[in-house]
Amino acid sequence: MSADVIVVGAGLSGLYAAREVLRAGLEPLVLEADDRVGGRILTQQVAPGIDVEIGAQWIGDTHHRMRALAAELGIGTFAQFEEGEATYELLGSPVLRENEFHAAHRHELAALDQALERLDELSGQVPLEAPWDAERAAEWDAVTAARWLDSQQLPPVAERLLEICTVGILAVPMAEVSLLDMLYNLQTCGVGAQLFAESEGGAQTTRFDGGTSRIPQALAESLGDRVLLGQPVMLIERDETSVTVHCRGGLVARGQHVIVALSPTLASRIMYDPPLPGVRDQLTQRMPQASAMKAFLTYDEPFWRADGLSGQLISDIGPSRMSNDTSPADASYGQVLMFLEGEQARTFGRWPEAERREALIAEAVRHFGPRAASPTHYVDGEWSDRPWTRGCYNANMGPGVWTNFGRALTPPVGPIHWASTETATRWSGYMEGALDAAIRAAGEVATQLRR
Ligand SMILES: Cc1cc2nc3c(=O)[nH]c(=O)nc-3n(C[C@H](O)[C@H](O)[C@H](O)COP(=O)(O)OP(=O)(O)OC[C@H]3O[C@@H](n4cnc5c(N)ncnc54)[C@H](O)[C@@H]3O)c2cc1C
Question: Which part of the chain is the Amine oxidase domain (predicted)?
């Protein structure tokens, strides 16, 4: 088989890159390992009329590319339910409603706001195209985010909240990322500490009618037989002007360029001939996928709303440290999403499902009352077991990685180009980042082919 541009991976980034390539007047061919498109986007039907988003679920107000794409594909959106009070269970205290919690911890919360302002100020000094060029890059890349948090000497409640919110974004313990990487993560989203909020400016304001999977499915449909499923790419050979891509089943695809739209971890599991430069390989050896899973409790109705609750919990007892109301727009049933992130995913993700379910229901009862004891459905989704993902939400960098190896993240190696959300400079880690990276990679190819 042959095409102008071979795209590896039919996640959002690969599909969008293929579409951009086609729009530039070139022929793409997408090779996808799995038997479905969408990668980290996966809407699953639990029962007729009841869905869960095992993967990506929300976009934010500044996810302009995603908004435009959904509109173009005719996929409607609706606002995340945001009314009512959250519930808090921290540092041995019984469950408190948001207003009680705020009244009890006014001073600690003011200290938290100040810490968020400091984070905003520091992240504003990180150049997105070259984080290693930040004036204090060496200093920030030499310490972990956990060490920075310790150094702030925040009151315990403020420290715990900041840690829970950060792990909620990075999905690994703060000791596993450098301060520079945490600052980069804030800066790439362009909303600073607003990222910790779901309201205006955050990353979780809007959902898609009928589920997020409709987006990759519609993109794949528009590409037709240019997308081949069940084709794991094992080897990419290259010379100055062409690539030959070998799949596990024996399919061989030839092209002038290849866009590898996989997370760095999975991109590094392909063999390259000749081998990639050492610095690129050293980088991908150091960009592990994080640890997150989502667990959904579905009920006949969102009963917590009648009690003035938002369905959002914050807990340091767990198993879940945060939750969200993921009921459908018409509230025809109720649904709570319990996040398991970082150590919570690693610990509780390995429990037998029945025990995990029981522990999460017990937690929901503590926060939302006895009606939470009887969900109609329980579903959870583990991502590190999935051979073509191996962890989520995205990759992180520990100390020393940005400054020593970060320069190798996006530049092409001859005719090999890198997409995937991890290579974005705007909203890296999110669906918006997957589009950002796709546009860059497809642009590189089109420019080189025009020459
Ligand atoms: C649980 C979860 C919740 C999330 N929540 C949100 C959210 O609410 N909002 C948001 O914006 N983002 C969210 N994200 C992140 C978002 O899903 C990703 O940023 C985005 O989907 C990444 O797209 P991608 O194309 O870069 O990578 P992927 O989706 O990982 O696509 C890579 C593709 O390559 C395929 N592949 C892998 N190896 C090979 C190979 N050797 N050969 C061929 N194909 C291969 C994979 O099967 C996959 O289809 C979430 C992710 C997860 C997992």
Answer: 12-445
- Average pLDDT taken over every residue of the chain: 96
- Cα 219 to Cα 11, 13, 352, distances in angstroms: 10, 11, 37
Cα–Cα distance for residue pair 68/78, rounded to 1 Å? 14
Domains of the chain: 5-39+212-288+395-450 (3.50.50.60), 107-194 (1.10.405.10)
DSSP for 218-257, written as a single string: HHHHHHGGGEESS--EEEEEE-SS-EEEEETTS-EEEESE
- The answer to whether the CB of 310 is under 6 A from ligand 1 is no
Give Cα 339 to chain centroid, integer Å.
13
389 lines ligand 1 (CB under 6 A): yes
Q: What is the pLDDT of residues 68-81, one digit of tens each?
A: 999 999 999 999 99
The residues pairing with 7 across neighbouring beta strands, listed in sequence order, are 30, 259
Query: Which secondary structure element, helix H or strand E, spans residue 7, and what is its range?
Result: strand 5-8
Q: Which of 260, 262, 287, 291 to mutate to test the pocket of ligand 1 (most atoms within 8 A of CB)?
A: 262
